[in-house]
Write a structure and sequence with these properties.
This protein is α+β, with helices and mostly antiparallel strands and 419 residues long. It has seven helices and 15 strands.
């Protein structure tokens, strides 16, 4: 019979104690693994969906890790290997505070900036650079084919008495011409045969005398003819006399004679009486070309003396054979009007119906602006130049009205006006 003490010494160790120790070791190992896992996560930055949240909110506790389905099975107190086992109470997981880990010297700190929200996004302000606006260039004045022009000779009808004017111009109701035609004279070059034909048409008997290459004469028994490049003179001492007819009849007689004489080659315009002597039964009719018109100069023209019977006694003619025209620009209305107001224009007025004597003061209101022509002579020839004409009515303080015309040189390229 064995010794009971010996039998007890051979008994295997208590399995319940071994199981409790094994469970405690497993729990400690799992805690260490969880602690290591959390440290790795903090070092690598993984799992931090929102950097603004604290580590305590994102780091799983030991119990959460221990109770997850991915953890190894931990036997409960009822899963002992040999009968009823004592209950194992797991110690509470200690609170783990993970210190912030500074980057090592070999790696750069990763700085994550907040994504800009819609309110913080600012579009770059584009600097607006205003392009300089080119001003409308002033157009070059229109200068025609004749280049620079001589000054125009403005000869007005004169004034019968002194006149002082205040000027009124409503620019909304009148307009000024912007261009005008300059005409260059083409004078005839007569031959002896040309002069012989003229004398025959006029009834001047006699031979043609050549005085020079540009001067001829024919002297008959009662009439004579003198022809030069720029002038023709005719006289008839046998013209019958009679009491003078009315002005219209006398003008018509002079115009008809000039047109049929063969002495002029361009159209004959209307004439006007510039002298009348009823005692001598003669009148002087002034006739100018039909175009261009109206003319302010003394020529081109024909001065024809007629008797009461409508017979031509004398004629003095300055009439070119033709013209060559070229378009020129006119100066602006503002510029020309300022000169008018300054008293630089030539004034013509019909004050024949005004009573009294002495200087007349009136307000002149411009009603229209047009063009007339005057002669300018220079080294390059003789020209008809366009002149700006301000036409209207002047009214005195007592309400008397009379017509007024003011003439101003206005063509571009013209020298200062003369006359």
């Amino acid at each position: 019979m064995r010794d009971r003490r010996t039998y007890d010494e051979r008994r295997p160790p208590d399995r319940g104690r071994d199981t409790s120790q094994r469970n405690a070791l497993i729990a400690i190992a799992f805690f260490i693994a969880a602690f290591a896992f959390v440290g790795v996560m903090l070092l690598t930055g993984r799992g931090d969906d929102d950097p603004s949240q604290s580590n305590a909110a994102t780091t799983p506790s030991f119990l959460e890790v221990a109770g997850s389905t991915a953890s190894p099975d931990v036997p409960t107190a009822t899963q002992g290997l040999g009968g009823t086992q004592p209950t194992v109470t797991m110690p509470a997981a200690p609170t783990v505070t993970v210190p912030a880990v500074a980057p090592t010297s070999t790696e750069e700190a990763v700085v994550e900036e907040d994504e800009p929200t819609e309110a913080t996004i600012q579009e770059p302000t584009e600097e607006i650079v205003e392009e300089p606006v080119d001003e409308e260039p002033t157009p070059e004045p229109l200068i025609g084919d004749f280049g620079a022009l001589p000054p125009a000779q403005i000869v007005s009808g004169g004034l019968s008495r002194g006149l002082t004017l205040d000027y009124v111009l409503d620019r909304s109701s009148v307009s000024a011409p912007t261009t005008g035609t300059v005409y260059k004279f083409i004078w005839p070059e007569y031959t002896a045969d040309d002069v012989a034909t003229m004398a025959a048409n006029l009834g001047v008997d006699g031979d043609v005398k050549v005085n020079s290459s540009t001067s001829y004469s024919v002297v008959g028994s009662s009439s004579s003819l003198y022809v030069r490049t720029r002038s023709i003179q005719y006289s008839n001492s046998s013209a019958a006399t009679a009491p003078l007819a009315d002005d219209g009849t006398l003008i018509a007689s002079a115009e008809s004679w000039l047109a049929s004489s063969g002495l002029v080659s361009t159209g004959v315009g209307s004439g006007q009486i510039i002298g009348r002597n009823d005692e001598a039964d003669i009148a002087v009719v002034f006739v100018q070309p039909a175009n261009p018109s109206p003319l302010l100069a003394a020529f081109p023209s024909a001065s024809i003396t007629v008797t009461g019977a409508g017979v031509v006694r004398e004629a003095n003619i300055q009439w070119p054979v033709d013209y060559v025209g070229s378009e020129y620009g006119m100066r602006s209305l503002s510029e020309v009007w300022n000169q008018v107001v300054a008293g630089q224009g030539a004034i013509e007025a019909d004050m024949s119906d005004l009573s009294g004597a002495g200087t007349v003061s009136a307000t002149f209101t411009v009603e229209s602006i047009g063009i007339a022509y005057s002669v300018g002579s220079g080294s390059e020839g003789e020209f008809l130049l366009p002149i700006m004409v301000f036409s209207g009515t002047a009214v005195t303080d007592d309400g008397s009205a009379f017509p007024v015309w003011v003439y101003m040189s206005a063509v571009h390229g013209e020298a200062s006006a003369a006359g």
